[in-house]
Design brief:
There is one protein chain. By secondary structure, the protein is of the alpha/beta class. The chain is built from 5 helices and 11 strands, in the order βαββαβαββββαβββα. A 9-stranded mixed sheet has the order 2-1-3-4-11-10-9-6-7, with helices on both faces. Strands 5-8 form a two-stranded antiparallel ribbon. It starts with a strand and ends with a helix. The structure holds glutamine (GLN). It catalyses: L-glutamine + H2O = L-glutamate + NH4(+); N(2)-formyl-N(1)-(5-phospho-beta-D-ribosyl)glycinamide + L-glutamine + ATP + H2O = 2-formamido-N(1)-(5-O-phospho-beta-D-ribosyl)acetamidine + L-glutamate + ADP + phosphate + H(+).
Length: 227
């Protein structure tokens, strides 16, 4: 499986993402600069964390105008897996690929620490390697992770099982402890915690690797025929 790691001016978790895919997962990965106009050669799209355009205005609000975002939308419409982590999640929200918005953390402090997450929905293509309600440890590092949406959107998220991860202890004030959500179709996931930084026990946790393994397993089942 071949992944695109999209790089925006100010991305700083692209190397971690690339390392997780290439060295820990053992799949193909390529850096793709934000002005690229063609993602047709990739099977999965990864938007890594960082401070695209210095987080000016609102995190992700400038990056979502990048050329590559039209291609990310196309890939999502084609049903390809699209994962946005931290700033990647913020960009997906700004692009309208996921509902809701991100506010500054309650307390207005940047939080960088391990987080306990509950896997609320283990039926997505991103989480099928976990069990329902499994608690995993994945680090967070953000100043703008306070997820917010209106009541109707929240009801839809709950009714469609689109809330995928919640925090055991809410670090940022996000609505209903939301740490990650998926789109209605189930192929676009945004999450504030960093699974790419939890892929080896030397990093304090290897719980994140299952997320990437789930993507590959589900992709193989759908695309690779064995005789
Ligand atoms: N690591 C990240 O992507 C976090 C940066 C992010 N722009 C923030 O809210 O602070």
């Amino acid at each position: 499986m071949k992944f695109a790691v999209i790089v925006f001016p100010g991305s700083n978790c692209d190397v971690d993402m690339y390392h997780a895919i290439k060295d820990e997962l053992g799949e193909e990965a390529e850096y793709v600069w934000h002005d690229e106009n063609d993602l047709s050669g990739f099977d999965g799209i990864l938007l890594p964390g960082g401070f695209s355009y210095g987080d000016y205005l609102r995190s992700g609000s400038i990056a979502h105008f990048s050329n590559v975002m039209a291609e990310v939308k196309k890939a999502a419409e084609q049903g390809k897996p699209v994962l946005g982590v931290c700033n990647g999640f913020q960009i997906l929200l700004e692009a309208g690929l996921l509902p809701g918005a991100m506010k500054r953390n309650e307390g207005l402090k940047f939080k960088c620490e391990p987080a306990s997450l509950k896997v609320v929905n283990a039926k997505t293509l991103f989480t099928s390697g976990y069990t329902e309600n499994q608690v995993i440890s994945v680090p967070i590092a953000h100043g703008e992770g306070n997820y917010f949406c209106d009541e109707l959107t929240l009801k839809r998220l709950n009714d469609n099982s689109q809330i995928v991860f919640t925090y055991s202890e809410n670090p940022n004030g996000s609505l209903e402890d939301i740490a990650g959500i998926v789109n209605e179709r189930g192929n676009v996931l945004g999450m504030m915690p960093h699974p790419e930084r939890a892929v080896d026990s030397m990093l304090g946790s290897s719980d994140g690797i299952k997320l990437f393994q789930s993507i590959v397993k589900n992709w193989r089942e759908a695309h690779v025929t064995t005789s």
